[in-house]
Specification:
By secondary structure, the protein is mainly alpha-helical. Helices cover 49% and strands 2% of the residues. A two-stranded antiparallel sheet has the order 1-2. Residues 47-63 have a biased composition (Low complexity).
DNA sequence: CCCTGATTCGC
DNA sequence: GCGAATCAGG
C-alpha cells in the first residue's frame, strides 16, 4: 500500500533517475508496473533525467594488447588512481588474452540472481564494483571467479589429504 | 533475452 | 486508486 513514506521515497528515487524496476526493488513488495502506475497518478511522468538502460560505453583503447601494464609500477609511485587504472588495464588484457566475457562493473543495484558477485576494489572507495559477469542460477560467482573462490580451499583439502597419507606411511 | 516507460481497464 | 497485462520500443 502507498503510505506517505513510501510515496515520498518513490518521489525521491524517481527524481534521482532510478528506473521503475529499480525503484520497485528499493521499495519492495511492489512491481515496476505498480511504480509506473503510481508515477503517472502522481503526475511525475516525463523526467528531466530519463533513465538510460545503462549503455555500455567502452571505447576500449586497443593499443595496449602487447605492453602488459604493471600495477606495481604505479603502486610504487603511490598514485592510487593510476594504480587502479593499471589494474583495470591488466584485467582487460587478461580478459582479452583468455577470451573471457568482459567484467560488467555491476553495482549493488545491478546485481541479480545470475550475476557474479565477486567484489572488485575496496568497498566504499569510488571505483568499487562487482564482477557482474554471468553466473548460473544459484551460483554466486562466474566460472572464473568460482575457480578463484573455491580452488584455494580445494588445494588446502588436497594438502591435508596428502599429509594424512604421508603420516600413515611413517607410522 | 535483457531492459525501458506508456496505456488500458477490471478490480 | 491500484496494478497486471499489454504495447511499443532500446
Amino acid at each position: 500500500m502507498w503510505t506517505d513514506e513510501r510515496v515520498e521515497l518513490l518521489k525521491k528515487l524517481w527524481a534521482e533517475g532510478l528506473s521503475a524496476s529499480q525503484v520497485a526493488k528499493q521499495l519492495g513488495g511492489v512491481t515496476r508496473n505498480a511504480v509506473i502506475g503510481k508515477v503517472h497518478r502522481l503526475g511525475l511522468s516525463g523526467r528531466a533525467t530519463p533513465s538510460r538502460p545503462a549503455r555500455s560505453r567502452a571505447p576500449a583503447p586497443r593499443t595496449l594488447v602487447r605492453g602488459r601494464p604493471d600495477p606495481l609500477t604505479a603502486e610504487a609511485r603511490g598514485d592510487e588512481r593510476q594504480r587502479e587504472a593499471a589494474a583495470e588495464r591488466a584485467e582487460a588484457a587478461h580478459v582479452e588474452e583468455r577470451g573471457l566475457e568482459p567484467i560488467q562493473r555491476a553495482t549493488v543495484l545491478t546485481l541479480t540472481e545470475h550475476t557474479c558477485k565477486w567484489p572488485i576494489g575496496d568497498p566504499g572507495r569510488p571505483g568499487f564494483h562487482f564482477c557482474g559477469r554471468g553466473a548460473e542460477h544459484g551460483a554466486p560467482y562466474c566460472t572464473e571467479h568460482a575457480r578463484m573462490a573455491y580452488q584455494p580451499a580445494q588445494a588446502r583439502r588436497n594438502r591435508e589429504r596428502d599429509r594424512m597419507r604421508r603420516d600413515r606411511l611413517v607410522s
